[in-house]
Specification:
Layout lengths: L4 E3 L8 E5 L24 H5 L5 H13 L4 E5 L9 H11 L3 E6 L16 H7 L4 E5 L5 H8 L3 H14 L3 E7 L7 H8 L4 E8 L19 H17 L3 E5 L13 E2 L42 E8 L2 E7 L10 E4 L16 H7 L18 H5 L5 E3 L6 H9 L10 E7 L3 H12 L6 E8 L5 H11 L4 E6 L5 H11 L4 E6 L3 E2 L3 H11 L5 E10 L3 E3 L6 H4 L10 E3 H7 L10 H11 L4 E13 L4 H20 L6 H9 L9
Parallel strand pairs: 2-3, 3-4, 4-5, 5-6, 6-7, 7-8, 8-9, 14-15, 14-17, 15-16, 19-22
Antiparallel strand pairs: 1-13, 10-11, 11-12, 17-21, 18-22, 19-20, 19-21
Keywords: Iron, Iron-sulfur, Metal-binding, S-adenosyl-L-methionine
Cofactor: [4Fe-4S] cluster
Protein name: Radical SAM core domain-containing protein
Length: 659
């Protein structure tokens, strides 16, 4: 697609994967999932003696990931910076395959020379290899506490972050929340704001593997209620400072007030960073790591499905669980009797067995009222800030996230440029110009682009130019046959803060601009305002455009081409494309959404669309729509599921993938 980032549409499966280089690690994280891996009494012995996977095998995995349609991947371990081939693997992925890598690390070796590196510091070798992103495991910003939690040094990690800050490179960070650090989260958040972090994850410690046995997590795992106060404060600090926040793996009711931030097992398959490939990190020779997990759109993986479980275990009365009998992870999430009346049951993770048996059921406080929705509830889907995926090392992610968190309203009286395009529409042009020039909104200019008309369209335009010399500019160009070229030409010559395109055979309601500007001002998060539409001519009727949904927009257009949008949208997208004639507006709206510029419907019939036999819709778009839709998918391939991209390339029928 060529853009430095993209917005991952909720409800679509992730385009991200994981490259697990092996579990070898020298750190001593108290909460490590792989503690006591080898069954010994030494918590970290298994990690110390684990082996890395061979570089050649990992290279094969990367090749398969690319073939499977993945765009980005996380590199994990163990501590992946210790892998002897880490620099070459990243260079192969980034430079040769065009994928985007994110390195998960405690950062203890980044400022040291790598044994196979050319530079004095590994971090410089990684940047030379075009590494896109880092994910720092930032569990504390107090040196003593950091050392207690990990065996490493916060100061060493901070040095690596400072180097990236100096180079203007932006990145992400993680904090595993446990009994020892939850009260320090606000201080950690304030420190994060001093760095180039654009996305931070708080991970409530999951009692997996060794920790799943009753009593083992006592003293390490924090209670949700006790951590909640500090977590909410930390989220507020970060978001106010322009950092997006995820909270991973906590029951919704324990995170009251920050439900929008919660990502759980129910919705995790639709998270932009979820690993959608199979992986066996203990296999020395990967065989299936590069393949996508099978997933039907809208379906929760069976291991996370909700099943009835009415029994009493360790004195806790249960009603349901997430999981399937016989699965290696067993019933890994439980719901107590208190959850029975909760309206969020269908979208909540539930409680880990070890947590429920250690802390009891007092944390479960049911939601009352209507259901919170399917898979991803409305609050989560409306929280767009964490859904932006970095694709290039130098991408300015902080500006994108800040725009999502703190949208700026338009000015009190922004200038609007109406771009009228015309080819041989002499008989309609006067009506279109009248409707544009006689708008009730006064601060506007009209740019008429005549695309080499052979009738008297230019003469009509010049007549209006004489009557409205301060408002109307007339441009003539040789015939391009492309609405995109004419629109781009007009926008280039305009200087309005807001843009509205109008074809010469259509009409605006007198208050269209005034009402749309006011609507945009009242909804500062909106970059595009689109009206309901009146069809007239050979077909009559009212087209009630759908409420805006970017996932649904990817599957079919419902925005009129004649919609008011910010000039910034056109500049960032790069204008209308010319390889989707007649659908350049749909392609433009898709590209805009992929960059975080979203729309909002104004429920007013303000646009009049003329249906006639010579119109481009009947002569070109309608008979050729399947091919045009394929090209739109290919133009915006980062935004669509791999199966749809593959079908668009091959000419197969397009199977829509969405919940």
């Amino acid at each position: 697609m060529g853009y430095p980032y993209y917005y991952h549409a909720p409800m679509f499966p992730s385009r991200a994967a994981v490259l697990d280089v092996g579990l070898k690690c020298t750190h001593s994280c108290r909460f490590c999932y792989y503690s006591f891996l080898d069954g010994s009494t030494d918590q970290f012995s298994g990690m110390r003696h684990a082996k890395f996977r061979e570089g050649a095998a990992l290279r094969d995995v990367l090749t398969q990931l690319k073939a499977s349609g993945f765009l980005a991947f996380d590199i994990t371990g163990g501590e992946p910076t210790l892998h002897p081939d880490i620099i070459d693997l990243i260079r192969y992925a980034e430079v040769d395959l065009g994928m985007s890598a994110r390195l998960i690390t405690l950062g203890q070796f980044l400022m040291k020379k790598h044994r196979n590196g050319k530079r004095d510091r590994l971090i410089e070798d990684l940047l030379d290899a075009q590494l896109t992103n880092f994910l720092f495991s930032c569990h504390a910003v107090d040196e003593t506490l950091f050392q207690h939690l990990t065996g490493g040094s916060w100061l060493v990690q901070r040095d690596a972050m400072n180097l990236l800050d100096e180079k203007g490179i932006q990145y992400t960070s993680n904090t595993t929340v446990c009994a020892d650090n939850y009260s320090h989260l606000p201080d950690l958040a304030r420190e994060i704001l001093k760095h180039n972090v654009y996305l931070h994850n708080f991970i409530a410690m999951n009692a997996y593997h060794y920790w799943s046995k009753e009593g083992r997590a006592a003293g390490v795992q924090a209670g949700y209620v006790e951590m909640g106060h500090y977590l909410r404060e930390a989220v507020a600090i970060l978001e106010e400072g322009g950092v997006a926040v995820n909270i991973r793996y906590a029951p919704l009711c324990t995170m009251a007030g920050v439900e929008k931030n919660v990502v759980g097992v129910v919705g995790v398959r639709y998270d932009p960073y979820e690993w959608m490939n199979a992986v066996n990190h203990q296999s020395p020779v990967p065989t299936t790591d590069g393949q996508r997990l099978p997933l039907q759109g809208g379906q929760i993986e069976r291991v996370f499905g909700l099943v009835e479980k009415k029994e009493v275990v360790n004195g806790v009365k249960l009603i349901a669980a997430r999981g399937i009998p016989g699965h290696p992870d067993g019933f890994n999430k439980l719901f107590s009797a208190e959850c029975g009346s909760c309206s969020a049951l269908n979208v909540c993770d539930g409680f880990a067995p070890s947590y429920l048996f250690q802390h009891g059921t007092m944390d479960a406080v049911p939601y009352i009222g209507s259901s919170r929705g399917d898979l991803l509830d409305n609050a989560r889907m409306a929280y767009t800030a964490p859904f932006f995926v970095k694709r290039r090392q130098g991408a300015d992610m902080k500006s994108v996230v800040r725009r999502a968190l703190h949208p700026q309203p338009i000015g009190a009286n922004p200038k609007v440029s109406i771009i009228v395009t015309c080819y041989n529409y002499e008989r309609y042009l006067a009506g279109a110009l009248e409707s544009a020039l006689k708008q009730t909104y006064e601060n506007l200019q009209v740019i008429l682009v005549d695309d080499g008309s052979t009738d008297d369209s230019l003469a009509v335009a010049m007549t209006y130019g004489i009557r409205y010399p301060e408002k109307l500019t007339v441009i003539r160009q040789d015939n391009s046959g492309q609405p995109a070229i004419a629109r781009n030409k007009g926008i280039e010559r305009s200087d309005g803060e807001l843009i509205l395109c109008l074809d010469a055979d259509d009409l605006l309601a007198p208050t269209m601009v005034e009402e749309c500007v006011d609507w945009m001002r009242r909804h500062p998060e909106t970059s595009i305002v689109y009206p309901c539409m009146h069809d007239f001519g050979i077909k009559e009727g009212i087209y009630d455009a759908k409420p805006y949904s970017f996932p649904m927009l990817l599957l079919g257009n419902f925005l009129p081409y004649c919609s008011l949008y910010k000039r910034e949208v056109w500049e960032t997208v790069g204008g209308y494309r010319t390889n989707v004639r007649g659908c350049e507006d749909y392609d433009f709206w898709v590209a805009a959404g992929g960059l975080g510029y979203f729309g909002k419907q104004i429920p007013r019939v303000l646009f009049h669309y003329r249906n006639h036999q010579e119109g481009i819709y009947l002569t070109d778009v309608k008979p050729n729509y399947p091919e045009k839709f394929r090209q739109i998918i290919l133009n915006n391939s980062d935004l669509y599921p791999p199966s749809m991209v593959r079908q668009a390339k091959s000419g197969e029928p397009i199977a829509l993938v969405v919940s």
